Amino acid sequence: MPSSTKMSSLKNGSGIKKKTQSSLRVKQGFLQLKEKDTSSLNRRVKAMEKKTEDVMWLERTVAEIVTENHLTTEIFEKYGIDFCCGGNKTVKQACEERGINIEEIEKELKQAYRKRDEFRDSNQYDKWELDFLADYITNQFHSYTKDTIYRLREIIDKVANVHGERHPETLRIRQIWHELSGELIKHMQKEELLLFPYIKQLVRAKREGTKPKPPVFGSINNPIKVMEAEHKHTGDCLGEISTLSNGFNPPEDACPTYRTMYEYLKEFDRITKMHIHLENNILFPRAMRLEEELGNT
Questions:
Q1: I need a labelling partner for 101 at 20 to 30 A (CA). Which of 93, 167, 171, 248 fits?
Q2: What is the mean pLDDT of residues 180-184?
Q3: CA-CA distance, 292 to 297, in Å (whole number)?
Q4: What is the total count of domains within the chain?
């Protein structure tokens, strides 16, 4: 090969190599730029998702959250937020009314959801069949209420008789408890003898593809309205007891029986709120929808 041709060939090869290297540098620079853009976009998307998630927490009702995750009841109790009779308020509304730091309660709610996800076998009452849920409420909550009413009545009477003069709030607590306990017994009888059997009848009719027999009280909405009103009264009574007892905190001079009374009342308050929540926010709404679905209204 002539030397001039050889030199030309080498120059062309060198030029191609430089172009290739330049092209690679441009491509690498583009990829790096693309990665930066993608990373920035991902950050913006995550920020938007977090903002959307925070808004969702704020705009959801307390009842919806407790229905979805019963572990959150402890959080709402801690902040004094009613999740049974007053559960139709959004988290934002409930926090604003009580002057609660929204970010703090959101943090705790998210922790409760992570905990629920770790223990998927936890009770998800909204997934249960209505007849099973009605039996569960009767066997667990009604039985507990009946037993505790009489046990607490004896203790409250004793504390009021001994400490009533020095602590007149115990006299008012006794009066409330006597009135409330009688009302609760009648309330549970109405549920066990009228409302719950009809709910089971609706469930059975759907399974068998039949039409349920019309109840004596007309639409299921009628007794449910009465039950919800009585639940509201129960919540008001327990709220007054909580106020009178300074959040179920006994005074410094309280005897062991006095302290036991407040421990029982605190437990009763917590369990009764869960009891009312299961009925107001899960059992009753689903039963009304089922009756409507079966055309029995």
A1: 248
A2: 96
A3: 6
A4: 2
